[in-house]
């Protein structure tokens, strides 16, 4: 399988993932809406050792919220590229992935607190909060 690549809007920062993306999900909670500046997050988990920055890492800036989970974004264009947990890359935002990473969003979570203006298409797998384990 060829490497998955991703980059920010201005193209200054690029990364690659050797191996696949996992557990692609979309969270509609109010915090994710703000973090992703969108109706929901679109995010997939990576294995930290399979992820590497190709170029522009020095342009990254980050915001770490409560619980130690943070996001890294491009200081030039503002794209959010990765999620970090305890200084390790935890996952990538699907919006910055190039091409087809061969995953699809398998679950929409916290749909119970979605924005009033969002219409959820019929047929998507959705949960009001976290899905049962
Ligand atoms: Zn950028
Ligand atoms: Zn959320």
Report the sheet-strand fraction: 35-45%
- Spatial order of the strands in the main sheet? 6-7-8-9-4-3-10
CATH architecture assignment: Beta Complex
Give the overall average pLDDT.
95
CATH topology: Metal Binding Protein, Guanine Nucleotide Exchange Factor, Chain A
What composes the largest sheet? 7 strands, mixed
Provide a descriptive summary of the structure in words.
There is one protein chain. This protein is mainly β and 133 residues long. It has a single domain, classed as Metal Binding Protein, Guanine Nucleotide Exchange Factor, Chain A, CATH 2.170.150.70. It is 5% helix and 36% strand. It is built from one helix and ten strands; from the N terminus they run E-E-E-H-E-E-E-E-E-E-E. The protein has a seven-stranded mixed beta sheet. The chain has a three-stranded antiparallel beta sheet with strand order 1-2-5, with no helix packed on it. A hairpin with a 5-residue loop joins strand 7 and strand 8. The radius of gyration is 15 Å and the shape is globular. The relative contact order is 0.25. The model has no long low-confidence stretch (mean pLDDT 95). The site of one zinc ion (ZN) has 6 residues, from helix 1.
